[in-house]
Amino acid sequence: MNRFAPSKASRPGGRLQRGAVTSPRASSMRAVGPQSDRRQTNGQAATAASGSLKWPVFLFLISLAIPWIIAIGPLRLSAYRLVLIAMIVPCLAMWMSGKAGRIRLPDIALVVYCLWCFISIVTVHGTAFALEPAGIIFIETMGAYLLARCLIRSADDFHAMVLLLYRMVLVLAPFAIIEAYTGRNVLLQIFSTVAPTSPDIYMDPRWGLRRVHAVFEHPILFGVIASSVFALTHLVLGYGRSLPRRWFATGIVAFTAFMSLSAGPITALTAQGLLLGWNWILRNVRQRWKILTGFFALAFVAAELLTNRSLPVIFISHFAFDEESAFVRIAIWRYGSESVMNHPLFGIGFNEWARPPWMTSSIDMFWIIDAIRHGLVAELAIMGAFFGVFLGVAFKQGLDERTSAYRTGFLIALTGFFLVGWTVYFWNAAYVLFIFLIGSGVWILDIDAGEPAARHPKRQRPNRRTAPRHDT
Asked: How many CA atoms lie within 13 A of 439 on its CB side?
């Protein structure tokens, strides 16, 4: 028995649904005919919804929504950091021993990222200063990645993870509505009666509503975390479900994330919605993603040849919440790029970066901040890890219908993160969830890499004349 597996009574979503196929023998003893094919397909979908979640993953995801600040000596820790600290050594041991599949290039890229961050901080600030920030970078990066890499090893694990994230958004939704319309952050007030929390910040309303940040430090973080579940809810939890039930759940996620009233999360929602629409409209076209990639390649070439602005600048200017936000983020890209060119190897560390006096020190752009702080090696390493998993999963062949649907949801969710990273900086819970989600898809690469048969059972292909489509 897996030592990380919870008991049957404690498994989230562990109860078998009505009509579920409970064993290979039961799945083979089916009647003949279209009606039995339909019952068999529904049974497979029910089985897919009954997976378990390892208790460290459960604790980690729940801890993301716990805003307590935990002081241990001079360290100020959070609940999710305590979980990652507790699990880093067991996960490293599993990863190095091959129990999580073979070591892959994205794994090495993140090791290089953490190592180079340490070297750059030592170079800029000295060894004594580097220990704490480099340690936190290692815990939050390798800890979150390996937790998913080692403990999400099948489609059932992946489904259970998405289900818990969806339920967390579902719990936050009514509190988000209260905060948006009344201006009171009820959740933070409740948590603060037990232990210290992050401050309840107030930002100027938009459209007459307060920008919701719930248990997180900023509305952007709330929006990024909630929006990350959008495509996953639609294609993972919605697999085998009717279209109304699928869109109802997806709509709850979209509405909750929208309460942040932040351009970045709304951009992520929009991009994911457009990709889901493309996937549904062209569901009968096998080459639909290659066609879309071709369109984007043409758009990139046209932008470079026909305009005097780079593609990031064009994207930022069209997807910022207002002209002022767009102007500031374009300035961040311009002066941040200059800083990288002036300090390409080790960056500037945590020192102030060169910018006009009217700009604040905030760098609201995830895909440039590592290059500014730690140099191009760190930036290329974390981008290499992201695209190593993304492209590897995208080009994986031989997947069954269910895994293919999960793969599409995973890739669309990561696309949302990638796009929003040009207008938003991921920190704290949003950062570790981003890294965790990257690691949560590596099991797709390992399906044919000698995994135990029980973790990747061979499912019968449903009758295409009677089975519902699951790629919408």
From this structure: 30
Six-digit token pair at 367?
């895909």
Residue 399 DSSP symbol:
-
What is the rounded distance in angstroms from the CA atom of residue 403 to the CA atom of residue 237?
Answer: 12
| 3-state DSSP assignment of residue 73 | coil
Q: Are 106 and 442 in contact (CB under 8 A)?
A: yes
Task: Report residue 103: phi and psi, to 5°.
Answer: -70, 130
Tell me if residue 216 falls in helix, strand or coil: coil
Q: Which tens digits make up the pLDDT trace of 338-390? A: 999 999 999 999 999 999 988 888 898 999 999 999 999 999 999 999 999 99
Residue 146 in contact with residue 91, Cβ under 8 Å? yes
The phi and psi torsions of 471 (rounded to 5 degrees) equal: -105, 20
- Residue 256 CA to its chain's centroid (Å): 16
Q: Confirm if 124 and 346 have CB atoms less than 8 A apart.
A: yes
Give the 3-state DSSP-derived string for 27-71, with helices as H, strands as E and coil as C.
HHCCCCCHHHHHHHHHHHHHHHCCCCCCHHHHHHHHHCCCCEEEE
- Cα–Cα distance list, 458 to 16, 399, 401 (Å): 19, 11, 11
Name the token pair of 426: 């991921």
Q: Is 231 helix (H, G, I), strand (E, B) or coil?
A: helix
Instruction: Flag whether 29 is in a domain.
Output: no
Query: Looking at the domain assignment, is residue 194 inside a domain?
Result: yes
What's residue 45's pLDDT?
Answer: 43
Domain encompassing residue 54: 37-445
* Count of residues making up the chain: 472
Let me know if residue 360 belongs to a domain. yes
CB 347 within 8 A of CB 372: yes
How many domains, in total, are found in the chain? 1
pLDDT of residue 395: 92
Reference 193, options 183, 185, 182; nearest CA is 185
Return the closest-CA partner of residue 275 out of 388, 407, 386, 408: 408
Q: How far apart are CA 252 and CA 277, in angstroms?
A: 17
Give the DSSP H or E segment for 72: strand 69-72
107 occurs within a structural domain: yes
Please give the model's pTM, rounded to 2 decimal places. Answer: 0.82
- What is the distance between the alpha carbons of residues 314 and 329, in angstroms, rounded to a whole number? 11
Q: What's the rounded Cα separation, in Å, for the pair 410 and 235?
A: 9
* Mode of pairing for the β-strands spanning 75-78 and 69-72: antiparallel
Instruction: Tell me the residue type at 465.
Output: R
Beta partners for residue 185, in sequence order = none
Please give the pLDDT value at position 244.
Answer: 87
